[in-house]
Amino acid sequence: MSEILQYIPGSSPLHHLNPVTKLLLVILIVGLCVMSAQVSFLCFLIGVLVIGAFFSGLIKEIINQVPFLLLLSFFLVILTSLTVQEGDLLLTILPSAEPGGQGYGITLGGLLFGVILSLRFVVMITAFQLFVVTTKPSDLVTGLLAFRLPVDYVLMLLIALRFIPSLQLEAKRIHEAQLCRGYNPGTGISGKIRSMKPIMIPLVANSLAKTQVLGLTLDMRGYRARKNLPLHKLVFGFGDVISAVLVVVILSAFAYLHFFIA
Amino acid sequence: MILATALSYTYPVGVRPALRDITLSIGAGELILVTGPTAAGKTTLCYALSGILQHEFGGTCSGYLALNGRPVTDYAGVGELNRHVSMVFDDADSQLIFTSVEEELASGLETRIDSKQEIEDRVRKVMELCGIMHLRERPPYALSGGQKQRVAIAAALAMDTDIIILDEPTSELDVVATTRIIEILQDLKARGKTIIIVDHSLEGYRNVADRVIVMEEGHISREGTFDEIFPEQQGSMKALYTDPDLEPYTPADSPVIVRIDTLIKRYGTIEALSGVSLTLYEGEFIAILGENGSGKTTLVKHLNGLLRPDGGSVHVRALDAATAPIIDLVQQTGLVFQNPDTMLFADSVRDEIMFGLENIGSDSPDRIITDVLSMVGLSGSEPTYPRHLSRGERQRLAVACILAMKPGLIILDEPTTGLDEKESDKMMDLMLTLQERGHTIIMVTHNMRIAEEYAGRIIAMENGRVIGDYHNLKGRAS
To answer: Are strands B457-462 and B285-290 parallel, antiparallel or unpaired?
Structure first.
């Protein structure tokens, strides 16, 4: 079973990096990719992430995401091509009613916007994924608390991540139990929707039943009462110096591509 | 250590009190066993004694409860109480939150100990104590039920509190693992810890528990030493294979229903079944016994096509279980899962049974529904919402759902987990009735008592192999 967004134990540079540093890097990368509309800069960020993944031995994880990212990009490009009408018309779908006017169709601007949007999503998803799979959940909590985020929200994120593999396993178990009763997923859209019920209802009901014990467990381990963080976690090391260099490189690239080239 | 006087409690949505007039005094270093039928208030008592009830649940609480001589309401919430009390909840899965066993155990310590070294030392000690060192880097959600329970217990022990409360911590553990847990508790008790444990399997606590509390309908119905309350032996705590009442199995003279030949199943690189060969006959009542992880469940999943063999062959009557479609196999082989909640989804008991009948295209569903409900003792509950039934009733409804499809072979995976003795026996009596009506019954279990008392044939498994096949002369089915 492939596990989505779960911590992968390891001892790579990314694993050793302070969670706070990692979080700052993610915020920087995500922030810049939203601000930038340049294909070259977005590609540069993807390059940085791929290199980071390569040196952390996580390149396989990133490659596994490629089909999903391609599918997402495909839909984004289709959507923007059909909705954004800017720039030269590349393919006319409906000719203009007035003579000489530009008709409705796929435009260069729409296409470009779709590509930029896709690249942004690739950057954001990859950056977040690298952060989560190389950070232990308990370090994640420490890192987020260092940003003075309310403890309840941090725990919410922790629990959401924790639930992903549980839901996968539980869904598999429920599917098997229903197969034992001759469950046959229907065909066609209405059949597909109707066949969701025997899986979704036990899945949701059982997950809700788990939340109480889960919450109590966190309470009993003193997580919610946690105001001051353990300081030993926030020692900065050599990796953090490297990160600082990386930040300078990314910012320079951003400035160069946006202010000197453009 | 713990003092409760006239403690009563009603849940916010409850009508009847869940606890009634509990008066209890527990000294430091005592080990108390709490038992009683399902819904007797045992879990609520655990919540009360840990302070969770008063601080987290709302509802109406009366009477007095003090921990360490201080009223529980004086503590600043569970955040302060967790320095004195740790608790193991009955659902092991939902109390494991982190991504490795090691981190799971450390998580409770990071909030109170600053030294990383000290945390590591303590985690290692607890892992060694509970025999889970080899699971150190495994993600908890991927462990087996028994392993999860051991990790959950270890996580509570790591907190090193004076009071430890355990709510049915051994329900999914086999005899060997349960004995180990009881040894650990004994050791903790010797070190002055106060331990309160809820359990259904009792015999292991003889000479260990200082006192037994029997609960019924929210109040303490009996209290005394183990020998006073249970003078007779309560089930077996020894490995079954050494039982003198078991004779080597000789084939029955009825037709063959299942033929398994050198079955091999692999999960990745792990061989879960290494060449299992078995022949099962019509009308037998078989118990498959084995420790956690011995391959019992993997084996039975091959009988209805949920798993397909990697080597060898499986035949159910005339069907080849390696290739036959699941829809055909499930009409021969009905498999009832351990937890009924994995299948209940409909709005009424009637619709729940109807689901299977529609899937196989039954022609007289209403008559069948009435029949199977009366068989499992749930007559008249057709309009009830399934999740409003008790755990035992839900388990029997799950059996009814499978029964309605009229399979010749009925398989039950751990049919008595979460059921008290009375409900377990009810379940087993139902199986005996079905056997009389010509069904073949297989139950996968680690519960020696029900296997010895009911099954006619006992198959023992270990590490993916069959290590014993016996006639059980004492079993009521033979």
So the answer is: parallel
The architecture that CATH gives domain B2-229 is 3-Layer(aba) Sandwich (3.40)
Domain B240-472 is classified in which CATH homologous superfamily? P-loop containing nucleotide triphosphate hydrolases (3.40.50.300)
Put simply, the answer to whether A222 touches B360 (Cβ < 8 Å) is no
Token couple for A95 = 């000719």
How far from chain centre, in Å, is Cα A114? 18
State how far residue B261 is from chain A, nearest Cα, in angstroms: 23
**pLDDT reading at A231 higher than 60:** no
- Contact: A180, B334; criterion CB under 8 Å: yes
Domain ranges for chain A, please list them.
1-135+230-262, 149-229
A204 to chain B, minimum CA–CA distance in Å? 10
Model confidence over A194-205: pLDDT tens digits? 778 888 899 988
Is the Cβ of B110 closer than 8 Å to some Cβ of chain A? yes
Evaluate if residue A232 carries a pLDDT over 50. no
Round to whole Å and give the CA distance between B370 and B69: 57
Q: Which sequence spans correspond to the domains of chain B?
A: 2-229, 240-472
CA atoms of B243 and A13, how far apart (whole Å): 57
Contacts B345 to A, Cβ<8 Å: 197-199, 201-202, 205
Query: Per residue in A55-98, pLDDT tens?
Result: 888 888 888 888 889 999 999 999 988 888 888 888 888 877 77
The 10s digit of each residue's pLDDT in B133-185 is 988 888 888 787 788 989 999 999 999 999 999 998 888 787 778 888 899 99
Write out the two tokens for B305.
């096509």
Please answer yes or no on whether B110 and A230 come within 8 Å at the CB atom: yes
Lookup: tokens for B310: 């990697």
Residue A3: predicted pLDDT: 64
User: How wide is the angle at C-alpha B55 spanned by C-alphas A145 and B57, nearest 5°?
Assistant: 105
Residue of A3, A166, A198 lying closest to B355 (CB–CB)? A198
ipTM (interface pTM) = 0.81
Q: Do B337 and A202 touch (CB under 8 A)?
A: no
Describe the strand order of the beta sheet including B311-316 as a list of residue ranges: B270-281, B256-267, B311-316, B319-320
Q: Which residues contact B210 (CB under 8 A, 6 or more apart)?
A: B30, B31, B32, B225
Put simply, the answer to whether B107 touches A206 (Cβ < 8 Å) is no
d(CA B427, CA B459): 20
Q: What is the number of CB-based contacts under 8 A between chain A and chain B?
A: 159
Alpha helix (H) residue ranges in A134-196: 137-146, 151-179, 188-194
What is the pTM assigned to this prediction? 0.78
B315 pLDDT tier (thresholds 50, 70, 90): very high
Q: Is the pLDDT of residue B272 over 80?
A: yes
Can B2-229 and B240-472 be said to share one CATH topology? yes
Residue with the larger pLDDT of the pair A201 and A249: A201
Whole-number average pLDDT of chain B = 88
Calculated CA dihedral for residues A158, A164, A170, A171, nearest 10 degrees: 150
The three-point CA angle B209-B213-B219 to 5° equals: 165
- Which DSSP category does B258 fall into? E
Cα–Cα distance, A20 to A11 (Å, whole number): 17
Residue B45 has pLDDT above 70, yes or no: yes
Mean pLDDT of A143-154: 82
**Cβ–Cβ of A180/B100 closer than 8 Å?**
no
Mean pLDDT for A14-18 is: 82
Looking at chain A, which residue has its C-alpha nearest residue B307? Answer: A176
The whole-angstrom distance between residue B242's C-alpha and the CA centroid of its chain comes to 24
Radius of gyration over every alpha carbon of chain B, rounded to an integer in angstroms: 24
Alpha-carbon distance B25 to B156, whole Å?
23
Amino acid at A71: L
- Rounded CA separation B74/B55 (Å): 10
